[in-house]
Amino acid sequence: MIDETDKKILDILQRDVNTPLREIGAVLNISAPAVFKRIKKMKKMGVIRRETVIIDPKTVGMDLIGFVGIAAELDKLDKIVSTLMNIKGVLGIYLITGEFDILIKVIARDMKSFRDIVIHKINEIDGVVRTTTMISFETKKDTNYIPLL
Amino acid sequence: MIDETDKKILDILQRDVNTPLREIGAVLNISAPAVFKRIKKMKKMGVIRRETVIIDPKTVGMDLIGFVGIAAELDKLDKIVSTLMNIKGVLGIYLITGEFDILIKVIARDMKSFRDIVIHKINEIDGVVRTTTMISFETKKDTNYIPLL
Amino acid sequence: MIDETDKKILDILQRDVNTPLREIGAVLNISAPAVFKRIKKMKKMGVIRRETVIIDPKTVGMDLIGFVGIAAELDKLDKIVSTLMNIKGVLGIYLITGEFDILIKVIARDMKSFRDIVIHKINEIDGVVRTTTMISFETKKDTNYIPLL
Amino acid sequence: MIDETDKKILDILQRDVNTPLREIGAVLNISAPAVFKRIKKMKKMGVIRRETVIIDPKTVGMDLIGFVGIAAELDKLDKIVSTLMNIKGVLGIYLITGEFDILIKVIARDMKSFRDIVIHKINEIDGVVRTTTMISFETKKDTNYIPLL
Amino acid sequence: MIDETDKKILDILQRDVNTPLREIGAVLNISAPAVFKRIKKMKKMGVIRRETVIIDPKTVGMDLIGFVGIAAELDKLDKIVSTLMNIKGVLGIYLITGEFDILIKVIARDMKSFRDIVIHKINEIDGVVRTTTMISFETKKDTNYIPLL
Amino acid sequence: MIDETDKKILDILQRDVNTPLREIGAVLNISAPAVFKRIKKMKKMGVIRRETVIIDPKTVGMDLIGFVGIAAELDKLDKIVSTLMNIKGVLGIYLITGEFDILIKVIARDMKSFRDIVIHKINEIDGVVRTTTMISFETKKDTNYIPLL
Amino acid sequence: MIDETDKKILDILQRDVNTPLREIGAVLNISAPAVFKRIKKMKKMGVIRRETVIIDPKTVGMDLIGFVGIAAELDKLDKIVSTLMNIKGVLGIYLITGEFDILIKVIARDMKSFRDIVIHKINEIDGVVRTTTMISFETKKDTNYIPLL
Amino acid sequence: MIDETDKKILDILQRDVNTPLREIGAVLNISAPAVFKRIKKMKKMGVIRRETVIIDPKTVGMDLIGFVGIAAELDKLDKIVSTLMNIKGVLGIYLITGEFDILIKVIARDMKSFRDIVIHKINEIDGVVRTTTMISFETKKDTNYIPLL
Fold it and tell me: Is the ipTM of this complex over 0.90?
């Protein structure tokens, strides 16, 4: 497992992946090479999965976020999930408690393309029994920043 | 707005923010400085909000993802949202259609700390009428990668 | 009450209010003045409420149709209805059976202005307990033509 | 797209399609021929779909308005909609968010003929899974007037 | 149709079918034979369906009253109803608005025999999709007396 | 408690309260006075609550039967029930399992008078939190005949 | 049936099955052999089903308690129940009123093994139509002690 | 933590707390004193909470098992739970996911005493917003035996 110093490094990198090693080291009172070594270890361990840019969806015309609750035939759950994995625009897939079996998060250009995903793509999946759709009027927060400290 | 070349750059950077400019330029048949200029423009425009590391929540002991539907007194909606913004572990806040007014995504260490957030933190917010909780048994996908191509 | 000939006239006028009296008379085997007399009578009786143009909402940028179910404090129902009557964009108000007391039909420019109506305007009404919103992805039919024949 | 003057013309015509061109022109400070030209353009553009009479349903014995939520097999959605289009009394067909896929508005003479539509007509449609019916006790507003100003 | 005097007679007979004609006549200021004639007419018209004793269910060990909402395949609705008609203990069958198609009222000796009706008898009916059961803890009122005055 | 012979008498009287004692006695192989004695006993015991006529509601213009589920503040349940007892048209009051606390059966002349009962009368009762209304499209069975054999 | 003295014995034994007969006798003012005789009788009658240890599930790593509502095809209910009887971890099976036909209580090591039971084991049962899962965040009480006094 | 041998001992004791130590030892290939030592340790650790008799509720006239879902004001949750803890007949209290905050299991003599608990006892608790009751028609399984092997 990772220690408190690792967590502090992750916290800094989550805010800005380009923070210089020296700067990170200065904050944590360790040397830059030590920071480098820890980051390398966390990449190897799979703690750091990816280094990426975060895009503001509105600026690229992906204006619509919605959630779809899916009730499924349970013996087809695995297949349904693996098909959902490959539908463009499906950003999250969660097996959940409650009356639905799967909750998915979808991003789309507009109502029409959202519906195309829900009706045409999800519908092609064998074993989907019932869906309920919730559209986000407005997204107040949508981050991948995980609080570690 | 951004053009197709910008989108291709964003797609590459979403996969790996550290891809060398030269490599990007080679793929797109433009010069490295042209790539640099476009990235700079997109940062200024707010298209690129942040450069970050993506952490695997399980490796850092954040094992539990859940969603909470909140029915609110509508005249207190703004205050509720601004309080939710500051609750550690609340990664998404969506104003949605349907029977709930707000859907939030929460990440927590375990059931107990999840419940602390739901019962103690969300409860302190004036105007919350009713909540429904859905826990993710298993997270099959949870990405911030936005498909642009 | 109106007779079968009246109904036929209404059917023609619903399709095109500008159909010449003579043409209507020819179809029904009565004289144009007889048609005129019947139309006049039906206006007086309140059968014909208004002569109007039907606008295609999309062409004027009113792209969003939604329905809102409202559960109300029943002793405030009359006041709630009379307030709803004056909210721009509320095209239909129905007191209905089932779990909601009122169902309203709303037209708006976009998601944001729709939500402004739901959250800010409807919220200002005292006695509204709970609302559920359904957004129309796509309107397949939306007519005022009443089948009489 | 249409401009502010067009919108004012539409607003007047929605209130009374027979308003003389001269009268409209006087309000808008343009000539009657200019008004005529704009109306002609808006008909051509499809902004004005129809000129019609609005009937008071009660006076013609169409006393009952109801809404039916329909959950459908999604791969049969298109066929279901096209069948619904031809059922007499179905005035509105909306593909909606939430637990139902389609919401329809129905007008009928009485409870019995309403039920005939719901049970016998809608039932003949292959792919309808579940329906929920809401009857309007009282219609407080039901207009096609679209607010443009 | 029946008149006010008929209604008064019905009201008296509902309270006690054995009220002497003379006594009824005295209350209504008409002769006993006139009362007799009116009762005869109302039997012939079908206004009076039956003369009966009302039993207190508890005293005969029929302790349990419950309601069952039934969602049905609509094309089998007629057959389902005609089968329900013949199930002993089913006292009421109503085609209703809302999420269920049929609501039935059932009386039974105890929980076990109630469940036998719901699970074994209702289940044998082809076309029943889903049922919801509500048991009456306590029956505060259960009358066939129709208020006419 | 009553015995099998009593039950047979009750069954006959439920079908026709005017069946001659002799006729009943013949069927049961007992004397007419013995039948009389048993009936008298059952009246005294409260088994037979009332002798009455059963009216066909439609013939007297009571065309609408509906059910209302009431969620109540539980500490006001007794008062709510005693008020409901005195509302004309409320034929049944049941304290039930499930999401509602009270289910009532209402009979009314038409939609309008039904709604007056639901909105104005039931609403005057302090402690009613939420109501759901189900209207009977058609009453297929509605009897007070209790099966004893 | 058992008497008050028996109930007092049962109450003591429920608290501690090892309470000496003499001690029980002293409390109840009867002899130890009389206590013994009563216990023996209650075992024979089936009042006492088992003598057992109660384990604290957390201490043995059975951390998760959940409930699953099951809607079933009713003609397969008996088979479903008999299959559920043999699923390890299913501690309670109740045929219930309301929208579900069966409610089961499940205990499991963790979310994953809980889901395995719900999805893989329960799913293998033919006739299960729909399930809803509720997870216990925290178990405040879970006892088999039946209050008899 | 406990080991596999401990689990086997617990499994035996759950089936019959009176199994002789020697017999247990023979099965597990350890000495009786070793079994004794392990049991003593598990009592000390709190693994074994209680040694008790399991009563068949029907034989003691506790015929009714039901579940009540409680939606609560969250800031009063702790108080509500501590009051529920002391209500006779409440055997289980679970803080659960989904639309209710608390699920309780109740045992009672009959419908009437069940309702007394739900309406009068639970109602006295400040902060209870809404309850839903499910009654068990039939209890197919209800055990405290925890599968460890």
Answer: yes
